[in-house]
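Journal club prep — side note

Before the paper discussion, L.F. wants everyone to see what a predicted structure for a comparable chain looks like in token form. Sequence:
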Amino acid sequence: MIGRLRGKLLDKKPPQLLLEVGGVGYEVEAPMSTFYQLPASGSEVILHTHLVVREDAHLLFGFASERERSLFRALLKVNGVGAKMALAILSGMNADTFARCIQENDTASLTRLPGIGKKTAERLIVEMRDRLADWQESGVLPVVMALPSAEISRDEVKDAVSALVALGYKPPEASRMVSGVITDGRSSEEIIREALKGAMKK
């Protein structure tokens, strides 16, 4: 099991990033909550990781903190929740907001996330309520420090739409979410953050 990686951040296109460790490039999928904290490409980062082994692939997921990874692992134990849905949950709302939704039986907010219907939201609330007590006690701070963003490219909007599609939103919906955001001078991570905020308010 690969539990932690420390290396140079070569590329980042949400929800995927490429991390070079000892001459080996690791393709890692990460939630937007981690992407918001990533430094510019070329910088050194430390990620807590979780390896998912399937018949057709080995998928590596990276997180800014042990606490975030712990929540991801707890989500995977919920019936009907896979790695992609867990990633979408951590991307669509921060961990504390998710905990509030569980504690307050807020199915409406949960169903705004891609791929989560009413039944799945209700299942999340029932199965996660007890697990959250242990998670909330593990107050581990993030290990990735944010640095100034890299220069904005003309492809940031396109990358933002692609990232939202990868997180489970349908292409027309992803385009509509991004179109409602002021994109000038913003990185793809910033555009995604604002688009997700807008989606959660509806």
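L.F.'s comment for the group: The CA atoms of residues 85 and 115 lie 7 Å apart. Keep this in mind when we get to the figures.
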